[in-house]
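Pilot study result, target chain (279 residues):
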Amino acid sequence: MINKMLRINNLTGSDEILNNFFLKNINRIAYMTIYDISKNTYISTSTIVRYCKKLGASGYKDFKLKLMNSQINSHQTRFNNLVSLQQENISLIDLVNNLCVQSIEGLHSLTYSLNATTLNKIAALLLKSKKIYGIGVGNSFIKLQELQFKLLKLGISIELINFQSEQFYLAYYSTPHDVALVISYSGTTAEIINDSKIFNANQTPIIAITANEDSYLAQNANIFLKIPRMNSKHEFESELPADICTQFITTSIYLSVLKQLNIKQLTSTPIIKFTDKNV
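Predicted structure:
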């Protein structure tokens, strides 16, 4: 879509204004309605729809979706083609700088794939569920622990079990009134797949965070959040940026819950005010 916008010819005056506005504000478009565009450009909604159709979209919503996907693909391509972390005689500072660049690219990609609608759905699901089960292995489990600590400050508990084999029991006793938050970078870990199948059998909603969109986990989740993936021969080269991106996703979930609860300020330790009745 971006390439079409850059190459399109024979635009009317209004189309030219719209084209320039979309290209200059591409980071904001995901959050703007057709009425927002009309207000900012002083162009009617019907003209905006005609412009979108000239670019092969059925309307503004379809145009916005194609534009967002185009932007995500652009960043994903850059993300996958970045210099490999493992190079012969690479210095420590270059190693750190490359990690920084890769992580920034991954986070930038996430700003287009994450949206308020999805995050609000996740927050609503977490808040209305009787129990929240966390399923993950290794670094994924650590991310769940970090989210557990954050949500605990809001009075929300995630049930976790340290032992991978024992996580089976969380899935086994789940109900349709609960929710499962499952994190797996590969999406192919046998225990993760087995637990996901049990959650599905129990009709327990699944929120999946994985880089593998073709995995059973992603395909059978109620809500799927994609971790940006970098093609690499070496596992550690993709693990480090993915770890940072996963942290970004879980923190975004925490913020969405915080927003829905409308909590404006938190203290690191709850403060209890005693009265005469407490003494």
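One observation from the pilot: The mean pLDDT is 83. A full batch analysis is planned for the follow-on phase.
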